[in-house]
Specification:
This protein is α+β, with helices and mostly antiparallel strands and about 300 residues long. It folds into two domains: about 10-155, no CATH class; about 160-300, 2-Layer Sandwich (Beta-Lactamase). The chain has twelve helices and eight strands. α3 (about 55-65) packs across α4 (about 75-85), α5 packs across α7 and α9 (about 175-185) packs across α10. It comes from hydrothermal vent metagenome. This is IrrE N-terminal-like domain-containing protein.
Length: about 300
């Protein structure tokens, strides 16, 4: 699926909220301390297990006491976690973040940033606890989730700091891994920020997908491509390119490596005007998913066979 669109006005408002938090924290150096963010915003965090009935009963009890909006139906929250397969939830009344402890620890930092964003984006409160709660995250309200993901990225990568630093380095998995370590975030989230913020005026795409030769790597909900990330320039110039088009490039060039470098190639894509451009493409497998970026290098007379 493509990364969902966040509107210009929403982007500006979210940036203002994140910039205010970072300013009040003294514009810190990476990695961002989430405990300091929670202290500033007076937030609480809790962990539970969807596989532990006693833990869910405890959540139900706590929300009966603390969650005014759920007072008449405290069992709703338990049903939400079970049926919607959620990994976390923001509870506005108690200013509490609940995270599924069964979720891999590497993902907790992003999840916490995501839920903090739900809490600081003013218009999210009316959506998160409406009558259709069970149909929201992640099934029906992709825009709300995209806004929270955007806020999480801006928070964990310290506003404009990451983009400014990334522009001084080459786009490569070596630099992505280096920034992931410096900012204390996952390689996946760092790839996402590199594609969107390093050179927004350059056509760049990213793909989080399955491995063409190893079905156990990256397959989720029986789809080959989980996220299709695009720079602003790519969205404008190559909006005709679909996730399947991008994945076809991977299938064409992938080697048999189960882990490490999988693609290192040059190929071409045709833009909305019918012009062909050469892209440098690299893919890296972390044994859980396949991460890919493609960066536009030059206009070329070559025709890409993957576009009908």
């Amino acid at each position: 699926m493509p990364s969902e669109y966040v509107g210009d006005l929403e982007t500006r408002d979210i940036n203002e909220q994140i910039d205010r938090i970072l300013k009040e924290l003294g514009n810190p150096e990476p990695p961002l301390s989430l405990p300091q963010v929670r202290e500033l915003l007076k937030l609480d965090i809790g962990y539970f297990s969807t596989t532990d009935p006693s833990a869910l009963d405890e959540i139900k009890h706590r929300l009966t006491v603390a969650g005014k909006q759920l007072l008449a139906r405290p069992g709703l929250i338990v049903d939400v976690f079970k049926n919607a397969n959620l990994s976390a939830l923001w509870v506005p009344d108690s200013k509490r973040i609940l995270i599924d402890n069964d979720t891999p620890k590497l993902k907790h930092r992003w999840i916490e940033g995501h839920e903090i964003s739900h809490g600081i984006i003013p218009w999210h409160g009316e959506f998160l606890f409406g009558d259709n709660l069970t149909t929201l995250n992640p099934v029906c309200d992709a825009t709300i989730e995209a806004e929270a993901n955007y806020g999480s990225g801006r928070l964990l990568f310290l506003g404009d700091k990451f983009g400014n630093e990334a522009r001084d380095t080459e786009l490569s998995f070596k630099s992505i891994k280096s920034f992931a370590k410096r900012y204390g975030n996952t390689i996946t989230s760092t790839l996402w920020r590199m594609v969107e913020e390093r050179e927004p005026e350059r056509a760049v795409f990213g793909l989080i997908s399955a491995h063409p030769y190893y079905p156990n790597i990256g397959i989720g909900n029986n789809v080959e491509t989980k996220y299709f990330i695009r720079s602003n320039r790519f969205k404008e110039q190559f909006f005709n390119i679909t996730p399947d088009d991008a994945y076809a490039l991977i299938e064409r060039h992938a080697n048999l490596n189960e882990r490490g470098a999988v693609v290192d190639a040059q190929d071409a894509l045709i833009d909305v005007d019918g012009d062909t451009y050469e892209f440098r493409i690299e893919s890296f497998s972390n044994s859980h998913t396949l991460l890919t970026y493609g960066v536009c290098e030059r206009k070329t007379p070559f025709f890409s066979l993957n576009i009908s």
